[in-house]
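$ run holo --ligand "4'-deoxy-4'-aminopyridoxal-5'-phosphate" --emit tokens
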Amino acid sequence: MSLLARARPELAAFTPYASARRSGFEARIRLEANECPWSGDEEASGLNRYPSPQPDALRARLGALYDAPPSRLWIGRGSDEAIDLLLRAFCRPGRDNVVALAPTFGMYRIGAQLQGAEYRALALDGEADFALDPDALLALADDDTKLVVVCSPNNPTGTLYHGDVLGELAARLAGRALLVVDEAYVEFAGVASAAGLIGRHPNLAVLRTLSKVHALAGARVGTLVAAEEVIDLVGRIAAPYPLPTPSVRAALAALDDDAVARTERRVGVLVAERARLAHALASAPDVRRLWPSAGNFLLVRFADADAAFARLLAAGILVRNVSKQAGLEQCLRITVGAPDENDAVLAALGA
Ligand code: PMP
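-- output --
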């Protein structure tokens, strides 16, 4: 069964805004979009024109990067926007629900709340290394579940959920719900993307971003990789021009061959630094537990997280205090930085 039958029914007959740039016509004199005829100075060159909603060059480049045909990509303002649009496309306010993990990335809950969808979270146990039991996760799903979100590597635990478990979840949700795998950090995990499973499981969607390893958090470029019918639906409800021209330029520059080679070297450095930081922190006086991480961060339990947070801050280092979240008592999430920044963390913690 097509998953479109599970989207909000009113969207089946929804006519998207027909923006000027969607007309497909080319002309020497463009007077169809109420733009200014003059371009700005060098930096603003060409910015008098509205951008293509989904620029071909960027789609092609991201398709190659993510090993997916361009028809299976929708590019937006960070993966945050894709999460929001999936919730809006599938969840009927006041009726439908979303199933996810806890702890996990906070935007799934926020997005669900904004859409008026119920948010159901499976509590993972740090004592069991945040292992995911597919039966327990699916036990939370019912006829009104539209999205099941698995963040892998999971933020903030660093846990990788990979391979068979994702295929199994997708198969068991087939025709009922979209399995959304958020791979914001997958480049640090050294595993293949779950997007390779979409051909077999058209109810699987994968979120990728240029914000982390590609060093473009400020440009806001995220990609949804999904079956064509899901991409089409998201494209129809998206804002007319989701991608600012300067961000498209920055993304293309970050994805040329030299830049990608540099990115790969940087991943190597950060993965090695993650191991070094983890090893040194494990023997730090106030560290009680440290979880294996497949991301560019470490989840660390301290004897007193607030005290460790304050000690780091006094040394000029800001980390994320996640200790108020259920299951993360006395925990800090520490991003793996450049080698000198990590040295500073270790020095501040007496490790
Ligand atoms: N997913 C996860 C798991 C994240 O941690 C983040 C950012 N912290 C995002 C998505 C959002 O990324 P983007 O910058 O692409 O919107």
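-- notes --
The domain at 3-255 is CATH 3.40.640.10 (Aspartate Aminotransferase; domain 2).
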